[in-house]
Amino acid sequence: MAGRWLRRGAALIVLAVLLATGSTRAQTQGADVLAALRDRVTRLHTQGKYAEAVPLAERYIALARQKHGEEHTEFAAANDWLAIVYLAQGRYAEAEPLFKCALVIREKALLPEHPDVGQSLNNLGWLYESQGRYAEAEPLYKRALAIHEKALGPEHPDVGTSLSNLAELYRDQGRYAEAEPLYKRALAIYEKALGPDHAWVGTSLNNLAALFESQGRSAAAELLYKRALTIREKALGPDHPDVGQSLNNLAVLYAFQGRYAEAEPLHKRDLAISEKALGPEHPDVGASLHSLAWLYFVQRDWARAANFWRRSTSVTVRRTQRGTDDVGHALTGKTKGEAERQSHRFLGLVKVVHRLASYWPADASLAREMFQTAQWA
Description:
Helix content is 82%, strand content 0%. By secondary structure, it is mainly alpha-helical.
């Protein structure tokens, strides 16, 4: 469960490079319409207002095409921004061609070792990682790291970005010994360059805490999760999606320790934040619902567990039926689709419905639900 949040945390650092770039350009081109649009998209994305950002990002692309054509780096930046917003909404299939377009433009218009090329490599790599396409993500992350170290120096925040992304990829694959020194180096870079209370430091602490949790170092993980939560609440506000991320991670840790009374309010606050900021069909909302279902399952509260697993699996079903996320890759056999990656949620629902059916054997609807859910599992 925690892994889902950490992928999103890694993305924040990837995209923060673009946020900073857009803000700087806006200041130097104050009256320019493109810069103004970019700045508005930046602010909305930072605030977690993704639905509001989409039409502005689409307008940014149209205007950049009109003013500069489709081979200009401004058009690449516009494609990146719409992809960034789509990524935040879990619209992975729509984000991929935009990220690829931006990368092609930058490789052609700039030197192959330009930092902006590294930025595009990081973004595309994270998209692949979020879809479980690890073999495709790793060479992109490594190339981005090499570009940033050579072009910017070993202590630049963009180097921290590349280190964090590669570390996250290793953690997702259970390569903990390779991930830890990268996480720690990234954290040191951010603390030195940005200060101890910056949002990127919070994300870096969150990722390192998850690594410690994966290794069974629960006490160390708890301290880092709490520090990350404090930093994010102060830097981003109490209702930002990344605050929800920290709440979820801390709640999952408590639940695995049997501290259910402490975990429940954190999970509920996370769900409220995610639903409000991301919309009811975002993958992170499905994951938040799954976390609550699992919490009730381990407490043998079958009815409430079933309720939250029904809601969680319905998010995946609706997204898959609409072709959202990476269903196309699943159909071609390249990767697992969203439904397949989340099969444990459907299995959880089958288990709790089976237990409910043992109490009410005459209820034929429960048997039908078990059969239908098992088809997805």
